[in-house]
Design a protein that fits this description.
Mean pLDDT: 96
Shape: globular
Radius of gyration: 12 Å
Largest sheet: none
Length: 91
């Protein structure tokens, strides 16, 4: 079950839009706690994931990262695709 606010998050998969695969992506790039997402740059994390994994991930992955960071910074739960336009401007 997903939580309604960042203070209730215990693990990555508690965050809206985050499933086991994305939780593993976060771990691959060195994040160990959901609180480490606070204040991070989603585009930089996405680029780091691509570099660390050796795979050019779908750009929608960046949208998911942006959504997770927004939520952990106190934003309300939003669908990941609501961040597509922002990502397109930043990438």
């Amino acid at each position: 079950m997903k939580v309604k606010n960042a203070s209730a998050v215990k693990k990555f998969t508690d965050i809206p839009n985050i499933g086991p695969a994305t939780a593993k992506d976060f771990e691959l790039i060195g994040l160990r706690s959901p609180n480490e997402l606070k204040g991070k740059d989603g585009i930089k994390l996405f680029k780091k994931l691509c570099k660390e994994s050796g795979v050019e991930h779908d750009p929608c992955t960046a949208d998911v990262f942006l959504a997770a960071i927004d939520f952990m910074n106190g934003g309300t739960p939003k669908k990941w695709w609501e961040f597509t336009e922002k990502r397109k401007k930043l990438l």
